[in-house]
Write a sequence for this structure.
């Protein structure tokens, strides 16, 4: 396979190069894309490398929101004092993604743009009601995730940062696949100014919210409140790692553990 490689020197250059060809791909940490290329699942005509864009890296707390650059690695998020103090559950989530190599190479923006149905970060973004910022606009979490490997991003659009509202409480739990460490089921819960949010990854074709759990926890932010909630298995994944019914049963259990850890 052959492709044209460009190391972008600005977001504008990256966006222009990616938008010029529908077969072009932006590459951040490469932990998802390179694996797909090796397996023959992706064959980009152009690779636009974002690694030199320092302005896409960094973490800052401002105005009750935690702003994280798209090229910030999982390891950096996990080790950040700002993240640990403002949203401990987010630091916990980042610290349990993949293995050490993945955490030191993989990035927040890359994970969101790829939107793997079992990835961890989408659950945090949706669970916290975060906003994804690009070179063109700001996209609310509820509008960003569109399905399996699909997002609201347009051709050539580049994620620049994500802003996370600091919640009153938040927790994260996942039941992982031992080899890949992806979530068989992962649940992020958050008690925010706008209400309770519960986001699930790994169980279906993409990250999704569970209204029944949100309602139960809005009335009583306690692990016991999740015990009476039943989640339908309809539409959930059914594979060698777990049946749809098994995943459905795991969701309220993990939600309860996440609340207890918040």
């Amino acid at each position: 396979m052959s492709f044209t490689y460009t190391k972008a020197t600005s977001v504008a250059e990256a966006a222009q190069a990616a938008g010029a060809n529908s077969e072009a791909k932006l590459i951040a940490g490469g932990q998802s894309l390179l694996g797909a290329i090796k397996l023959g699942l992706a064959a980009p005509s152009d690779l636009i490398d974002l690694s030199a864009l320092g302005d896409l890296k960094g973490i800052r707390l401002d105005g009750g929101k935690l702003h994280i650059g798209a090229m910030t690695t999982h390891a950096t998020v996990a080790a950040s004092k700002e993240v640990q103090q403002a949203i401990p559950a987010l630091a916990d989530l980042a610290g349990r993604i993949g293995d050490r190599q993945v955490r030191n190479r993989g990035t927040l923006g890359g994970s969101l743009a790829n939107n793997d149905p079992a990835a961890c970060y989408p659950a945090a973004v949706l669970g916290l009601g975060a906003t994804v910022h690009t070179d063109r606009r700001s996209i609310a979490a509820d509008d960003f995730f569109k399905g399996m490997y699909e997002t609201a991003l347009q051709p050539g659009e580049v994620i620049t940062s994500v802003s996370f509202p600091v919640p009153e409480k938040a927790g994260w739990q996942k039941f992982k696949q031992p080899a890949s460490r992806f979530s068989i089921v992962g649940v992020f819960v958050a008690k925010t100014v706008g209400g309770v949010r519960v986001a699930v990854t790994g169980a279906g074709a993409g990250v999704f919210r569970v209204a029944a759990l949100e309602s139960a926890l809005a009335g009583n932010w306690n692990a016991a409140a999740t015990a009476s909630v039943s989640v339908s298995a309809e539409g959930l994944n059914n594979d060698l790692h777990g049946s749809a019914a098994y995943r459905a049963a795991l969701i309220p259990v993990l939600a309860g553990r996440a609340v207890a850890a918040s």
The mean pLDDT is 94. The chain is about 35% helix and 25% strand.
